[in-house]
Design goal:
This protein is α+β, with helices and mostly antiparallel strands and 329 residues long. The protein is built from eight helices and 14 strands. Helix 1 packs across helix 5, helix 2 crosses helix 5 and helix 4 packs across helix 5.
């Protein structure tokens, strides 16, 4: 079961609607920039196709994840507990949130990945660490491309103003693999009752999330009117999620979308997320071009460390950015 959250599970029905799909191979990059900005402003979520991430890189990482979660619980526990990095089962964070899942959480620093791989795949740790490093490198490049196009679409002169934060050698980016085992007693599709929540309603605190999964459904996003929208799985594409930090960096122009994952299938679901984050001491504040008397700063300047500490002190469903709103909001 899922521990009670200060924010109740929304009961509005789900509805299948179109998710913005952006083709990154389009030659007219100004058009792509506009599409990205529109999707980030209106929904905070979109799908990218023709993204340039090699299929073999994705399949290799997916295979490594599948093999790890197929191990016995005792073998998996050698990679944990997740404090915060390592193997976790059902516990999400340290404040009582629970879900019907197990997961691996890794820092994207290559040295950390190498050390953690010793306990994740003791038979061939290099195979696992190479798969993670190749995958992280590829999806980081994808995230940076999207952030650069977003900056251009916002008419910010420094197009690297956002991507520079996650390219930094001290970036606090993380990589997560979630495994949702099949339920013993499957329930009605899209039933959001507490016992069927794989990962509860939340927004991502980082700048940008790059997500992909196998062909099993479960992910849902929440529209601003409270309507939950099921996201069709597409193993060949990536979904892009605006995080809290990017909402602050764009002075509220982009919206950090709330989402959740349901565990209600007879089949196992595997999802992989790259969370692009800045260094701990980086200041999160919008470029000067995005602030004016007509568009005053919505949030007090804060460091990523400040925000991360606040996020860890709250429950999963809490709205973290509210702690940093200015008096004029």
């Amino acid at each position: 079961m899922v521990a009670a959250s200060p924010i109740p599970i929304r009961s509005k029905k789900t509805k299948a609607v179109g998710i913005p799909t952006i083709d990154l191979s389009i030659q007219n990059k100004s058009k792509v920039s506009r599409l990205i900005v529109n999707a980030c402003e209106e929904l905070g979520f979109f799908k990218v196709i023709n993204h340039g991430v090699p299929k073999e890189v994705v399949s290799s990482m997916r295979d490594e994840g599948t093999q790890f979660f197929a191990k016995t619980i005792a073998e998996k526990q050698r990679a944990g507990p997740a404090r915060p990095f390592g193997f976790g089962c059902r516990n999400i964070g340290v404040n009582g949130d629970m879900g019907e899942l197990e997961y691996l959480l890794l820092h994207t620093n290559p040295l950390d990945i190498s050390e953690r791989s010793q306990s994740i795949n003791s038979d061939d740790p290099t195979k696992f660490s190479c798969a993670v490093n190749d995958y992280v490198h590829a999806v980081r490049e994808l995230a940076c491309e999207i952030l650069d196009l977003a900056a251009e679409g916002l008419w910010v002169p420094d197009k690297f103003v956002f991507s520079r934060l996650i390219r930094d050698v001290h970036s606090d980016s993380v990589f997560r693999i979630n495994h949702y085992p099949p339920l013993v007693n499957p329930v009605k599709e899209w039933d959001p009752s507490p016992s069927n929540i794989g990962f509860g309603e939340h927004s991502d605190p980082q700048i940008l999330t790059i997500l992909t999964s196998n062909d099993v459904a479960g992910l849902q996003i929440c529209f601003q009117d409270g309507l939950w929208v099921p996201v069709p799985p597409d193993p060949t594409s990536f979904y892009v999620i605006v995080g809290d930090a990017l909402q602050a960096l764009t002075n509220g122009r982009f919206v950090s979308v709330r989402h959740r994952a349901l565990a209600n299938s007879t089949r196992q679901r595997l999802s992989m997320m790259y969370f692009g984050a800045p260094p701990l001491n980086s200041w999160i504040c919008p470029p000067p071009e995005m602030v004016s008397p007509r568009n005053p700063t919505l949030y007090k300047p804060f460091t990523w460390s400040d925000f991360k500490n606040a996020a860890y002190s709250l429950r999963l469903g809490d709205t973290r950015l509210d702690l940093f709103k200015t008096a004029t909001c």
